[in-house]
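Dear support,

I submitted the protein below through the web form. The confirmation email said the job was done, but the results page showed an empty box. After a refresh the structure appeared. I'm attaching both so you can tell me whether what I see now is the final result or a partial one.
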Amino acid sequence: MGAASPPQQGVDPQLAERALRALLKHHASSTSDKDQLLGDDLDVQVQFTLAKVPGRTGPKPIRVEIPHPLVRVALTGDASATDDEDYLQDAECCLIVKEESKPWVQDLVARFPAELKCVKKVLGLQSLRTKHKSFAQRRELLDRFDVFFADDRILPMLSKALGSKFFERKKQPIPVRLTRREALPFMIQKCLRSTFMYLSAGTCLTVKAGNTAMPPVKLLANIEAVCAGVPAKVPRKWANVQSIAVKTASSVALPIYNKTPQELELIMKLASEEKESKKEVDDGEKKEEGEREEKKRKKDTALAKALKKQKTAEKEAAEEADAAKSEEKKPEKKSAKKKKRKESVDEEVDAETPVAKKTPKSSKKKRKESVDEEVAEAKPSKSAKKQKKADTAATTTPKDANFLPSKRFAGAKKGFVFKKGKSGTGYYRDVLPRVDKAFLASLTKRGGGGRKSMGGSMKKRKGGKSRRSY
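What the results page shows now:
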């Protein structure tokens, strides 16, 4: 047997269409003509059953985008007037803000009448606490408005100020950010074009997708969008969605998606494997990017630049050495050619001149001795060089002179010291110091006593103590 095919994720559009058709047929048969004239339309809801309770629950609404709004909104630039259908109703909204933000919010509502015409009341937090303190006042406020918006900075403070009835009827305020004032009209319109879900402490989630008065095509598109968007906002995603059904407030739930626990485990396993493979790919890309950045960083360091400079210098030196070698080889070739040419010329001269007679060896020796004598006479010997230096020294440094002027030190001269004296800078006669023998003799006589002579000068004080006198 082959391996089992992985379970399908997502809702089958054909099954959803059949369920919606049956639901609308049941609604039409269950309502009388009188109820239809009064406009007794019911909300169409998509019910999700989870396998496990969500870990993080809270009263904060989670926005889910849908293609067709549930209430009448401002027309955009590319929308036509036909988009504003009769089944849509005008939503009356209440915006709860801080007391200090109330003036400029009211001014903004007046400046954008098309986008903010749905905001019928701007309510301050302090006014909510004082003017709607009783249960009856809060219930009246709840019935008066369809949608509540609130500044996201004061959202945690509204649970106690509004009461539990707002949360039971799922009319808790939708958070909007008021820090960007110019974006408030667009944020209000964006929220009106969407639906909202609430993560409760149970395993059942119900999201409004439309009402029975909407065209079936638009209602089906909203149901498909809700079925695709809600699992992405639930912990563990599709692995936690056990079943999906479509229902109204007075009908049974018609299932359009159902998975067994074994199939959910398989979906979870496939999702984890896909996540791991994606993580490996991301890690590999990050690693490659990190290696590229590390190489780039190493190239930009001072050491890398110095090594690169050294390599280029070595390469240039090697090229210069090769060029020098090639230049040396060329003259050698030229000299060899010249030598050959000279030899050929000498051979021609020898061929033209008659052959001379051979001289005996004795005459050759005599001729060599005569040549050596001439060279010896031409080259002076070492003793002659020394004598010449002595003569020049004698001429330059006369014996009777005590000062030889010289701006620079021109080498050591015997008997002279180079310094700056009375006559200027130059060489002065070095006068050896004379020793005064009589003074030396007096010194030896004076210091001959040593410590005894010093001890002899000690005088005793009264009381047996002595004092040294100098």
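Response: this is the final, complete result; the empty box was a page-load delay. The mean pLDDT is 77.
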